[in-house]
Each structure stands twice: as structure tokens, then as C-alpha cells.
Amino acid sequence: MVLVIDPQIAGISGDMLLSSLVDLGADKNKIIEGIRKSEKFLPGSTIEKIDFQKIQKHGIQALQLILQINDEPHERKGIEIKKAIIESVNELGLSDKAKSFAQSCIDTLIESESISHGIPEDSVHFHEASSIDTLVDIVGVTIGLENLGLLDEKIVCLPVSVGGGSVTFSHGTMSNPASAILQMFKNSKFIIKGNSANEELTTPTGACILVNLANNVMEYYPTMKVTSIGYGSGQKDFETFSNVLKIVRGNENSSEIDSVKILETNVDDVSGEILGNLIEKIMDKGAKDVSIYHGITKKGRPTHLVTVICSDENVDDIVDTLVLETGTLGIRISESNRFTVPRTIHKIDLSLNGQSFPVNFKKSEFKGKSDFKIEFDDLKKISESLGKSIKETESLLRKEIEKLEIENDKT
After folding, report:
1. What is the DSSP letter of 286?
2. Domain boundaries defined on the chain
3. In the predicted model, what is the mean pLDDT of residues 5-21?
4. Fold match between 258-340 and 343-410?
5. Where are the alpha helices (DSSP H) in 234-347?
6. What 8-state DSSP symbol labels residue 22?
7. What is the distance in angstroms between the CA of the first residue and the CA of the last residue of the chain?
8. Distances in Å between the alpha carbon of 135 and those of 29, 65, 102, 116, 148?
9. CATH number of 343-410
10. C or N terminus of the chain, fewer CB within 10 Å?
């Protein structure tokens, strides 16, 4: 199963995610009961009313959290909120994974405020996030996720809308998104984007939950069969769009879908020796694959197109290598979703002609059919030791591995 969080239009807040989980099928009564039990851990705050109701947002029917609280008007330290959340999830008897998730959310929120303001974490004061709202959002979302079994599923997040304009709060007015939100998304795989709304669309609580929940980030929906949809409404109304967070649950193809970076550059004055060496250097930098194609460009000039597939964290090192090794003046960078068949890595020892050899191979399974591929470096070493061609060696090894697979199946 896979859950897709879609904050592309209206961003995300804690109450929007909580409402969307209930709309998806989480037990509303269990969530409300759990939140009411947590109330006692935050003295000075009481919940007068809590419920969920269906409303219309620009023609979209969504579920909205109705929360009426009586809160003493004072700011609290972040560690007070953290203590209340930890005590709450312990009181509710949630799983260790759920407890860890809830604590990670509040830790992320405190850490972002600490770094943004340049103060120790135990000195962080929450202003807008000082009320019981933060506890309600984090504890409620944690209960909902566990109730739906989502903490063990693949969770994908699409680009996050953060809004635009400026935001005014206890520290004054600053451009949106605020520093704490940017800090939470810093050095992550999440993609953020602005829009014409002169409002904050992604809140600090929404951001801290999101970065601890989603384990995959994509630009587009994965290939999936939709089984259920949840719509969670925010409190604000906008003229041009529905202030609604959409989450979608479904069955994903048995293959894996991930996101990779594609780097491309044309070089027309580099020798074959340099290109051959370039492949090795780029692979050493963590590239997933490198391809070089011969072609013709403007004015009939011969060229080589170098294409590299890599992950986000390797882009800078590989770009540096391409420029330094080829002298190229430009590199095109794009993002692409990649379809990969699940595979497992195996290592066995085989005895051939009185000699023992370690053999590494990858085994893949797709739609009931399985296959495996032996690592080329092992093929090369074994073929040299046996004095056979790589083709002969591969055939010999495949027969031996297939025998072992049949024996394992019988046992």
C-alpha cells in the first residue's frame, strides 16, 4: 500500500492532516477520546468542544476540525509542549513507533525554532504554537496514523505549497515562508513552491509532522490503484482555490517508483580515453548509471552526449567532476520518476574445478517471474581463474545457482 500526501495547492497544517485522516477512515471517536485524555498534561488549557464536520470549500466536500479551547494567554516553553506530548502518547499506550514519531515531530519543531533564533533548545519559547492546538494536532495525527496502519506504509509527498507574501507573528513581519519552516525543509528532499496567496499555507506544525512522516518525495503521483481518499479542510477561505489537503491511499505497482536526477552535457572536444576515465570517476562519486552517446550537433559538429543518473545528494560532486574532467560550460539538470523492479542482493560460495569462488548476484521478481544477474567483476575474475570465456563462465555459474535455488525451494 502507498499513501500520497498532496499539499500542492493549499499546503498543509496539523489540523488539515488530522481531518484528512479521519475522512480517510481513521476512528474519529478514538482520536477525540485520546486527545481529551491528553488535555490534563497541559495545565491551563481546556478543550470546550472537539469534533469533525463536513463542509464545502469551493465545491470540494471536506472534513474540518472543530476545536474550541479555553487557553490561558501566556507563552510556553517548547520543552513544556514536548513533555505533554510524550506523557500523552505514553498514557494512550501507543506503539513504540508511534511514540517515536510523535516525539520526532515536536523535536523537529523545537530544533527549527532554536536554530532560527540562535538560542538553546531548552530556551525556545512557543508563541503561536504555545496553545493546546499543537498537542491536539501531533497527538491526534499520531493516533490516526496508527489506527489506519500508515506508520508501516510507504508515504509519498508531492510538492508543498507554502503560500506567498508576508507573515506577521510575535517576532514581527517577515516574508513567507518563515525561517522556522524553511529550516525544517532545509537539506531535505522536499520540494516547496510559492503561489499567489498572500498567506502562510504551510504551518510550522504541519511542516514538522510532514518531514517526519513522508519517506518518499515525488513531483507526480506514483502509478497506483486508488482505494480511498481523504479531504481535510483548513480554517481559512481563499477566493481562487479550495483550502483543502488531499491524501490518497492505494495499491502501488509491485515495482518501485523513485525520483532521480538526470544530468546531461554535450562535449565535442574530448578524447575517448578521457571519456572512458570519466565514467569511472562519475561512478565513484555515487552515480547510479552513466551513458555516453555519439551524435551530430549544429554545423555538422560531432559530439558526445554524456548522461548521468544520480540521486539528489550526489548532484554537486558529479557536476564538479563533469566540469573539471571535460571542460563543459553547461550541464542540464532535470528530475525524473524511475520505475525499478524490486531486487535482492545475494552472495554464495561455489566450488568449480576444485576451486572455491565467492559469487555475488542480484535477484529480481516481477509478476510471478524471477531472474538473477551475476556481478560482472565476479564473472571476470572467475573466468580468468578457470581459463574460460566470460560467456562460458556465466553459463556455468547460472546452472550452479539455479541448482541451489531449486534445492532451497524444496527445503
Report:
1. T
2. 2-254, 258-340, 343-410
3. 97
4. no
5. 272-284, 315-326
6. H
7. 30
8. 17, 14, 10, 22, 20
9. 3.10.20
10. C
Tell me: the pLDDT tens digits for 361-374? Answer: 999 888 778 899 99
Q: Are strands 355-366 and 302-310 parallel, antiparallel or unpaired?
A: unpaired
pTM assigned to the model? 0.69
**Size (the chain), residues:** 411
CA distances to 279, 284, 323 from 268, in Å: 16, 24, 13
CATH architecture classification, 258-340: 2-Layer Sandwich (3.30)
The DSSP element (H or E) to which 114 belongs, if any, is: helix 96-117
Tens of pLDDT, residues 107-150: 999 999 888 878 877 767 775 545 789 999 999 999 999 999 99
How far is Cα 74 from Cα 43, in angstroms, rounded to an integer? 12
DSSP 27: -
pLDDT digits (tens, 9 = 90+) for 204-260: 999 999 999 998 898 889 888 999 999 999 999 998 899 999 999 998 765 666 789
**And the C-alpha cell for 132?**
493546546
Residues 6+ apart with CB under 8 A from 186: none
Q: Is 346 helix (H, G, I), strand (E, B) or coil?
A: strand
